[in-house]
Amino acid sequence: MCEQDGEKITTDDLFEKVLGSKEVKKIATADWLAKGTELFGDDPKLWRFVCPNCKHVQSIADFIALREAVGYEGEVQNAYYSCIGRYDTRIPEKDIGTLTANPKSPCDYTLGGLICLAKTIVVDDEGKENPVFEFATIERITITRRRRR
Q1: b vs e for 42-53, b when ≥16 Cβ sit within 10 Å of the residue's Cβ?
Q2: What is the pTM of this model?
Q3: Number of domains into which the chain is organized
C-alpha cells in the first residue's frame, strides 16, 4: 500500500497507473542483445533505456559521463536497472522523483527495490532472470529531449 496525494493506493493500482499493465515478457540474453543492436547499433553504450517509473531515457554513456562529473563509482550497467536520478548528486534531493503515479524525472527508482516494475526479464544461459528497463522508443527519446531543454 502506497500513498499518493493523501490517497492510499495498492501496489496493483500503482502498477496499472505507472506501467499500464502487469504483463511481463521473458527474453533470452542473446535475443535481448540482438534487439538492442537492431534498435541502436553495435555499441551498447549508446543504447537507450526508459525508467518504468518516471519515463526518463538514459544510456550507459550517461552513467559513464556521471563517473566523470560526480565520481559515480557504481556499475554503468545500472542504465538498464536503476534511474540515473538515484546517483546524480548534482540534482537537489527535492527535485528527484520517487515511486509515485506522477513522479519527477529523473527519479530514484531501481528494479532492485521493494516494487519491481519490470516489463521485461532477460534470462541468461543458466536460467537466471534479470529484470531490465525497456528499450526506449523514438517517441520517448523525443519527449525526454524536449523536457531537458
Answers
A1: eebeebbbbbbb
A2: 0.79
A3: 1
Range of the domain at 130: 2-148
Return left, alpha or beta for 127; rule: phi > 0 is left, psi -120 to 50 is alpha, else beta: left
Cell 554513456, residue located:
61
- Over residues 105-122, the pLDDT tens digits come to 899 999 998 888 899 999
Nearest to 16 by CA among 52, 57, 55: 52
Quick one: how far is CA 1 from the chain centroid? 22
DSSP 31: H
Separation CA 14–CA 121 (nearest Å): 20
3-state DSSP assignment of residue 89: coil
Answer yes or no: are the C-beta atoms of 122 and 25 closer than 8 Å: no
